[in-house]
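Here is this case:
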Amino acid sequence: MKRLLIVFIGLYTSVMLSQQTITLQECYNLAIVNYPLAKQSELLQVQNQLEKEVVSNGKLPQLSFDAQATYQSEVIEVPIPNSNIEPLNKDQYRATLSVNQLIYNGGATDASLAVKSSQLKTRQKQVEVNLYQLKQKINQLYFSILLSQETHLLLKAKQEQIQVKLSEVTSGIKYGVILPSSDKVLEAELLKINQQLTEVESNKLALIETLADIIGQPLNTSVHFQNTLVETASKTELNRPELELFQLKKDEIESNEALITKQNAPKLLGFATGGYGNPGLNMLDNSFQAFYTVGVKLNWNVFDWNTNKKQRESLSINKDIIDTETETFKLNTNTELNQQQKEIEKIEGFIESDLEIIDLRKEVLKSADSQLKNGVITSSAYITELTNLYEDENTLIKHKIQLQLAKANYNVIIGQ
């Protein structure tokens, strides 16, 4: 599934680059695949497979080889006169190969494998949670870039308007309708706008470079960031990956409880040992001999001083701790959601006021435009009213971007 996602993201990225556009959702998807932390999920999978193979090897025959050479100060002697039984050599040698085969251990091996599977799910979900927390940072960068993008367009519109007005004022000066030097005020304003455009582009480039590092995708100032309308999630229930992580932690504890329960189960093993040494199994034969033994062995820890019980009680307490963490997370998240909803409502109120203010500013500017053409006011007075309108329009843009950011953050908080 993950490989399909990577292929899909790769193809989509190629199309995106050819169109030189990018969306907020695409930034989310690219970060999930390309952020360095994302590599941990696959590494954890490989590590878990190795650990499970180690556990499974416990079911396979276990071979061991031993060899020893000793010299003893005393050996066993048979105290029977004229028995013709030679005493053992004081230097003795032995080499053995032993095989142990687990026959039954109460399902402890399978329980250990279940624990490893639970651990993998928990660790991979933790990676997902960490990646999910990148979303709000991406939101901040993305909408800051959008603000720079919209501010640039507004500055260009103001620049064009002043250039048109400069042509009118120059013509008015030529025919004596407008006071001399009025064009200088407009030219100075154009230079100021050029400075503002440079600053906006510089800030935008810094934001884009930071975002590019997070999503692992080269971006430049020519890429268009789509300003799509963000709608807040219609559902009211939390759908955060943290909640899944809490449940997986409890599942891991339950698998550990099952393992602990099986640790005291009887263990039955079969064994075989073959060897060669002097002496062999016949201690009275003072020569090198081959020998072997086969058998079964039962091991059962009948009483462990309630160690097993106390371990399970400790795990039960951990489950209660996770329950409290879950409730705390839900409470804090719902509080954050309420605050974000209030922020959305506040900004929506600001936007309504902004629209009314801009309508009034446009009426004032229209009057100032007529007065400038008739020589009633100076270019400075006109620039003042134009700047007032620009600042209010810029404020409207800021509030609209802030509203989009607040809605996007709301969706991230609720788990959209």
Remarks:
- DSSP finds nine helices and six strands in the chain.
